Amino acid sequence: MRLFGLSWLFLLWLNPNESLQQNEIKCQLTLPPLRGTRYEPAYRSLFSPGEKIRVTCGEGYWILNTQTTSTETTCKNDRDWTIRPVCEEVTCSHPQALYLDHWGDSGQQQRLGDTVTYRCGSDYRSTDGAPWATCTRDGWEPNPLCQAAYGCKRPPSISNGDIKTSAKYHYQHKERVEYICQQYYTMEGGPFKTCINGEWTAEIRCHQNCRVPEVPASLRIATDVTGNQIRKGQHLTFACQDSSHVIKGNATIECLENGQWSNPLPTCEAAKDCRRSPPPLSHGQAKPGTRYPYRHNDKVEYVCDTDYGMEGGPFKTCVDGDWVGEMRCRLAHGCGRPPPLSDGDTKSRPKYQYQHNDKVEYICQPYYVMEGGPFKTCKDGEWTGEIRCLRPCTVNRDDMNRHNIQFKHRRDDKLYSEHNDVIVFECKRGYRHDGAVGMRQTCEHGVIHLPTCQ
């Protein structure tokens, strides 16, 4: 035991400085540094009172209590630093402002450089006019976010119009004035301009109307017109009184902003006849005509050759000496399976494909009467021909008993009566006809009305 005590005193005598240093250690740093923090010197963690270090913050960080990105701090005797050597992320909190009408974040803190949309309340405006704020080291920019909105000076004048009431020299934010146009002028936009943050908003223009022109006897106005004034942008369309005349010039004119028409009035002239025969049509021909020359507005019908179908047409019209109308004959398309027929069917088993001009015959179910038909024809990819199967009528004996009637003729006493069959009824013995529905009734597509006897 004595030997151990002597050894300890010997070691203490050999290392007096290290022992004293351990007693002098006061301040400590966390290594590695926290995110966004850098130290100089970089690799020491223990410091004695009076020793200094430099703390430098990375992008988006700062020393919170100095709000700087770099500073020196000194170790004190109480094991603390003169400035806390930690960099914290720069953030901006939700602004507490009564004049904010809308703030676009969800309540969380925003980082340096983040932007948030916002809207100022009534009678306030964004300081820089933009609808967003940016988080900076100095807080939210712009600062302040909102300012009281500006008023306006006298409202601007407009050509050919005026303010409805006497103008003031100053107007408050959101105050508005009403404009009116002079007689024979029409307003576009408006009628109000509003003072918004020092500026008068809304475009208002007064356009001169166009007078409806007087037209010669040969010309008529085809547009419905009320009164003798037409507004800017509206149109007048003209036609000739005589159908054998044609319009020369612009048949439609527009009212311009200056109150003038876009074009002069058209005129009417006698239309020329077509002295040339109707033009030929490849794989088709015009139906024979008896007129020569052809008059203005005469039409000629064309047909295509067998196995050809027509696109456009089928008429060409003589218009002021020229033939007008586009058409062509091309190989006709075939058809798929023929369409079904309610209460009927095709007479033979249908095919999956048919040629142009092929026909299919239909039949109706027993007691059904065919209307139209009996054929549908494949015409250039479409099945043509209207066919309908008309239902028969049934007269229920219980219904007849309720109406106190019976068949007058034995031949009418049958289960089914076909469409258009006439059935004559009579009252049972001891009953008289009430006259509301006649005793002679016709079956119409499955419906027959029963008379009543009382």
TrEMBL record:
Its main location: virion. Pfam families: Sushi. Keywords: Disulfide bond, Signal, Sushi. CDD domains: CCP. Gene3D superfamilies: Complement Module, domain 1. Residues 1-19 form the signal peptide. Residues 25-89, 90-148, 150-206, 208-270, 272-331, 333-391 form the Sushi domain. It is found in: Virion. Disulfide bonds join 92-135, 152-195, 335-378. InterPro entries: ComplSys_Reg/VirEntry_Med, Sushi/SCR/CCP_sf, Sushi_SCR_CCP_dom. This is Sushi domain-containing protein.
